[in-house]
Amino acid sequence: MTTTLSGLRKKFEQVGYICDESTALTVYLALDLKKPLLIEGAPGVGKTEMGKVLAEILETELIRLQCYEGLDETKALYEWNYQRQLLRIQMNRNLEDEQIREEDLFSSDYLLERPLLKAIQAEKPVVLLIDEVDKCDPEFEAFLFEVLSDFQVSIPELGTVAAKNIPVVVLTSNNERELSDGLKRRCLYLYLDFPEVEKEVEIIKAKVPGIGDRLAWETARVVARLRKKQDLRKKPSIAETLDWARALVALNRNRLDGKLVADTLNLVLKTHADQQYFKREIGPEGVEKILKNTEDGGDICRCQ
Amino acid sequence: MPVSIKDILPESRESRLEENIATFVDMLRREGLPLGTTEMIDALKALGRVDLANRSEFKAALQTTLVKSYRDQAIFSRMFDHFFVPQEEHQRKSETAASYRQQLENLINQADSELQFKGESLQLSEKELQQYSSLSQQQRDSLQDFLQKTETGKNVESRFRPLLETVVKSHLRYCRTKKSSEQESFHNADGSGAGSFAGSEDQGLREKDIEAIRAADMPAAEQLLQKLSRKLAVKILRRRRTGPRSGTLDLRRSMRENMRFGGIIFKLKHKPKRRSKQQILLLCDVSASMKQYSTFVLHFLLGLQEVVRNLTCFSFSDDVENLTPGLKGRKDLQHILDRVIRQSQNWGGGTNLGRALSEMARKYPDLINAKTTVIVVSDTKTVSLDRSLKELEKLNERVKRVIWLNPLPLDQWPDYRSVNAISEIVEMWPCSTIGQLEEVLTGRL
Ligand SMILES: Nc1ncnc2c1ncn2[C@@H]1O[C@H](COP(=O)(O)OP(=O)(O)OP(=O)(O)O)[C@@H](O)[C@H]1O
Ligand SMILES: [Mg+2]
After folding, report:
1. Which chain residues have CB less than 5 Å from ligand 2, an ion?
2. Does residue A53 contact residue A15 with C-beta atoms inside 8 Å?
């Protein structure tokens, strides 16, 4: 997995993941130093996408561990295959002669690998995406910390299982709670912010085929401006920008105007309260103003 | 005066980079970033992989290794811009520094001319002269006044000079300590410096009595210790058989129990109730007899703290003190360490376990319940042993488990009645060497 920084940048471009220099550098360092990468940031800025994209870039399997409250080792690490064990016991009963031993039942044949074990056991280094790690319980986080320190786990019935290959680990968090210092210490850290207008235009163009320059710019600018409103409950994410842009293309539009924004608002602002806020505080006139105003990086002249 | 200005000039890169990074990390620590040796090593490694002449790459490499939360990014950015100054600016600032040095020289000369005895300068160091010039006008006047009066007094000979010098020096020293105690927070930011990168796999260390570990071995021993205590915590909190709901079927155990019935699930085994709010209560004996183990105790605690969220920590001698509020801050290890020692004013007193336990139960009833694991670190030497045993029994009944770690060397255990009596109530493990602690962990705990 020897990549250069410029090689990595190129690959990001190829797979349509648009990021700035320092993001690319951080990922490069994480790969090169073989450290887990912890990504934090607002919803929808491309944290999970990073894990997926890395698997694509490195041409390897993506193993995803989705965290949630109550996640425990039987879901994350391994579980015994009880059905198979039962079958085995019953088959054995018919044979009469041989007494079945406990070791036979609790052997690797009956082990169900969950994501962590799978990632550690894989024949080739995989990308292990531990998504939304802030949602799991602190106890599980502590356990994860140990796994990420040693890349080995102990299974009481089988003994210690060491990693065949150290996976590329990406952890994401939405800051629902602060992670432990220990876990953070293991990782390189990347904070993903909403992209600059220029970058979001690039993302739109990469993800929405057939969109014109002008519409891409105007969409990105309106979204960027909406994100600046502190009173919004949920700021529009990149996913919402993309949904919106796709819808506008489907509607055969090649530019935005106040009315069009108001009519398609529910694609960008998802909560009722935010839509009310828009009607009250911005409205179609406000949008027109945003579109005319070129100071925030949206240089209309750059579009044909 | 501004913080000394450093730069990463390409030609002097090799020799100064590490030093600069160490200083920079230190500055960030003072700003409250929880940085340890790991981060620093990572930073240096990362710098080895980027183009150092490219300022934004340089910055990004440091940022991703040193800053682990959104909140700290602004601090980092500010400090970075302040510390790593571009070359032209560096030039400008060093000119400022030169003129500052010139000013300083003038001040020193001035001081020298003011502090004279019978027309001759006193033998004072440059530093002392500088201190003198930083005194208030009033203070300077009074010193001059003192010299003058002595000079004009009766029977004053030049052999008085050394005495006078001593007086002036001690006065200056007094002014200095007064000043520095006012800005004490500046002092203890040294933390684990670049020297303590030693690997932690030193076998010899494991066998040594913890109190006998030499200062030179300390960093490695500390790392080992912290690692072990983390492992201990994970072991205590690790959830293996618990499911999302209470009393769900535990197939693993059912399977085991029913093998002999030929695969007919005969006896159902249920999972115990989920213990979501597991917590660890750490009780550290900080009485005089434990003093020699204090480093052990603190590093043990720091290791725990790194992974355990619901950690409450008390120090006790004849009373208890909750250390947890002090541990909440995101300060660097060394800071916590210093603070804990300072905060636990009762460090050095005698132990009264019984009183400490009953005080704790009275003040913090919420902490003591069936989800709590209590770890006591103590050599068991306590006054009023009988009452202590009663209190310990009470505690033991109310919590999930009490684990007693005894740093007293094993061969001394038989000498103490308290060891015997206490180990009859709760499980007691030796931990006078790191190896023993490791055994506890890999063993039956
Ligand atoms: N830099 C990017 N380049 C291209 N597409 C992106 C980028 N960032 C985000 N996207 C798009 O936005 C969508 C949402 O991203 P993703 O699901 O990764 O967000 P997230 O940060 O994980 O959000 P959440 O916190 O809600 O899980 C992705 O499906 C992807 O198509
Ligand atoms: Mg996500």
Report:
1. A 48
2. yes
pTM for this prediction? 0.60
Are A149 and A73 members of one domain? yes
Residue nearest to atom 15 of ligand 1 (CA): A46
Q: Residue B72: its chain A contacts at CB < 8 A?
A: none
Out of A165, A192, A219, a domain closes at: A192
- Whether A17 is in the pocket of ligand 1, judged by its Cβ within 6 Å, is yes
The secondary structure of B93-118 as a DSSP string is HHHHHHHHHHHHHHHHHHHHHHSEET
Stretch 267-296 of chain B: residues touching chain A, C-beta under 8 Å: 274, 276, 278
What is the residue type of A70?
Answer: G
Q: Which ligand is nearest to the CA of A203?
A: 1
Instruction: Give CA–CA dist B329/B349, Å, rounded.
Output: 27
- Determine phi and psi for B116, rounding to 5 degrees: -125, 155
Domain that holds residue A45: 5-77+114-192
Which pLDDT band, with edges at 50, 70 and 90, does B120 fall under? Answer: confident
With a CB cutoff of 8 Å and minimum separation 6, the contacts of B370 are B398, B399, B400
Side-chain half-sphere of A2: how many Cα atoms within 13 Å?
0
**Closest to A118 measured CA to CA, from A157, A57, A83, A164:** A164
In this structure, are A147 and A223 located in the same domain?
A: no
Q: What's the rounded Cα separation, in Å, for the pair A75 and B243?
A: 10
Q: What's the structural domain count of chain A? A: 2
Angle at which helix A21-33 crosses helix A5-14, to 10 degrees, equals 120
pLDDT in tens, A111-153: 888 999 999 999 999 999 999 999 998 889 989 998 998 898 8
Residue at A181 is within a domain:
yes
Asked if residue A241 and residue A162 are part of one domain, the reply reads: no
Question: What integer pLDDT is reported at residue B4 of this predicted model?
Answer: 32
Q: Are residues A218 and A265 in the same domain?
A: yes
* Residues A188 and B64: beta-carbon distance below 8 Å: yes
* Residue A57 DSSP class: H
Give yes or no: residues A241 and A267 share one domain. Answer: yes
C-alpha of residue A195 to centroid of ligand 2, in Å: 16
Q: Which H or E run contains A112?
A: strand A111-113
B307 touches chain A (CB under 8 A): yes
Transcribe B385-400 into DSSP letters.
HHHHHHHHHHHHHHSS
Pairing of strands A168-173, A37-41: parallel
**Gap from CA of A45 to ligand 1 centroid (Å):** 5
Q: Ligand 1: does its nearest atom lie under 6 Å from the Cβ of A121?
A: no
Report the topology of domain B279-442.
Rossmann fold (3.40.50)
Q: Is the pLDDT reported for residue A6 higher than 50?
A: yes
Domain residue limits, chain B: 3-85, 90-182, 247-276, 279-442
Bridge partners of residue A62, in order along the sequence: A127
* Pair A110, A85: CB distance under 8 Å: yes
Interface size between A and B, measured as CB pairs under 8 A: 136
- B49 in contact with chain A, both atoms CB, cutoff 8 A: yes
Final residue in a domain of this structure, among A192, A223, A248: A192
Q: Note whether residue A86 is domain-resident.
A: no
The complex's ipTM works out to 0.82
